[in-house]
Amino acid sequence: MTDVAEQLLLPETKTGFADALAHASVLVIDDEPGMRNFLSKVLTGNCARVDVTKDTQSASTLLDEYAYDVIVLDNIMPAKTGLEWLAEQRKIGLFSDAILITAHADLDTAIQAIRAGASDFLLKPFRTNQMLNAISHSLERARLRRQNSVLRHELELGKDILKNRDALLGTSAEIQQVRQSIERAAKTHAHVVIRGEAGSGKQVAARMLHTSSPRSGNPFVWLHCYGMAEATFKDRLFGRLETHPDGSVTRHDGMWQSAAGGTLYLEDIDMLSMGCQNVLTELLTTGRFSPVGASRTVGLNVRIVSSTTKRLLDMAQAKAFRLDLFYLLNVVEIVQPPLRERHEDVLDLITYFSQALAARMGVDMPAFTPLARRRFLSHDWPGNVMELRNTIERALIRGNFEDALEPAAGEIETERLAAVEQRHILAILEACGGNKAEAARRLGVARKTIDRKCRAWGL
Question: Which domains does the chain have, with CATH numbers?
Answer without folding.
Answer: 2-142 (3.40.50.2300), 159-337 (3.40.50.300), 340-456 (1.10.8.60)
